[in-house]
Amino acid sequence: RRLQFLAKSTLFTGPFINRLLRWYGAYPVNRDKIDITSFKWTLNQLRHDGVISIFPEGTRSKGAMIKAKPGVARLVQMSDATILPVAITGTEHIGNVMRVVNPTGDIKVNIGSPFSLPKIEGTIDSAILKSMTDMIMERISILLPEKYRGVYDIEKKDRLR
């Protein structure tokens, strides 16, 4: 199966870059508002056994994990998709599209075990979405060195309780 991913729509500038990104499997998402078109496209891909790489924070975090957006949990609930947590480090120096195509430095990818979220019947409120989003992000955080875990550092959370 082909891996596809969401990328900020502002990257899709000009016909060459647009084609290049789409060839790599990127689909544009407008991060300035709720992008129904991208949401429906992603949901359709997941419902038809597609593989989508989603960056739940909505951006590349600079140094440590930041609060994720709840859209990832909603997509999983609506599609029954299995989640494969992946953590990537060493990308701090990648600042533009050409560095993505020709990266330098050591990039490390840690892959966790697949898991599913519990299926919720009925209305899913924002508190449930936040809880499910946190479950996803905590699974990603344990794949990272502690200094990158940010708001999802489980060990610090446990010490604060």
TrEMBL record:
One of its GO terms (biological process) is phosphatidic acid biosynthetic process. InterPro entries: Plipid/glycerol_acylTrfase. Keywords: Acyltransferase, Transferase. GO terms for molecular function: 1-acylglycerol-3-phosphate O-acyltransferase activity. Pfam families: Acyltransferase (PF01553). SMART domains: PlsC. CDD domains: LPLAT_AGPAT-like (cd07989). Residues 2-91 form the Phospholipid/glycerol acyltransferase domain. This is Phospholipid/glycerol acyltransferase domain-containing protein. It comes from marine metagenome. The lineage of its organism: unclassified sequences, metagenomes, ecological metagenomes.
